[in-house]
Design goal:
The chain is of the alpha+beta class. It contains two helices and nine strands.
């Protein structure tokens, strides 16, 4: 196994506009197969055909094209919390640009973004279309399996003033769950 940690900062005219950091691990085919086999063996034996779901209206998740909607219609799931199901379309040319045995991280990121926009829009009675992510922290804990339902849950927190942006931002905590286990978690800040 080889690993890589990285970080970087982008500045424009002396002002920081982006900071990014993360880590990646690279596995040989044999190690990857063993890792995936161990994960699959640990799952409860409920793998099978997934139920058919209807995608959310594009405008409610900040999208124009229905083809780019990756979650179902969000439903209330507690105080300041909405939930939806992730819809992995393996024919999507960007999200599945090659064959995968799991739901890719970029699809999980987009599911988190869409549910964040829908949640903030719903709870604050504004349009999701103009909402932008201004901050993102992502953690990928386990592989999200293609043949298990993936539930995405977003909890909207109290808005705050971002002095750098000069606007209000709304923090949203998002989890992707399969069989009640967190496969990925995100903390986003959304602004209009």
């Amino acid at each position: 196994m080889h690993a890589l940690d990285f970080s970087g900062t982008l500045t424009i005219e002396g002002r920081t506009v982006l900071h990014v950091g993360g880590g990646l691990a690279f596995f040989s085919r044999n190690v990857y197969r063993a890792l995936r086999a161990r994960r699959r063996d640990a799952l409860a034996c409920v793998i099978g055909a997934l139920p058919t779901h209807v995608a959310a209206n594009p405008a409610t998740v900040g999208r124009r094209d229905p083809y780019n909607v990756v979650i179902t219609r969000p439903v209330p799931a507690g105080e300041s919390t909405l939930a939806a199901t992730v819809l992995p379309d393996t024919t999507h040319p960007h999200l599945f640009d090659h064959q995968l045995d799991h739901i890719p991280g970029n699809l999980l990121l987009e599911a988190a973004r869409q549910l964040s926009a829908a949640s903030v829009a719903t709870l604050h009675s504004i349009s999701a279309t103009g909402l932008q992510v201004t901050s993102l922290d992502a953690r990928f804990e386990e592989f999200a399996e293609l043949d298990l339902p993936a539930r995405v849950v977003a909890r909207v927190e109290q808005f705050r003033v971002d002095k750098t942006l000069g606007t209000l931002v709304v923090p949203v905590v998002v989890e992707i769950l399969q069989q009640e286990r967190v496969t990925a978690s995100f903390r986003l800040e959304v602004a209009q």
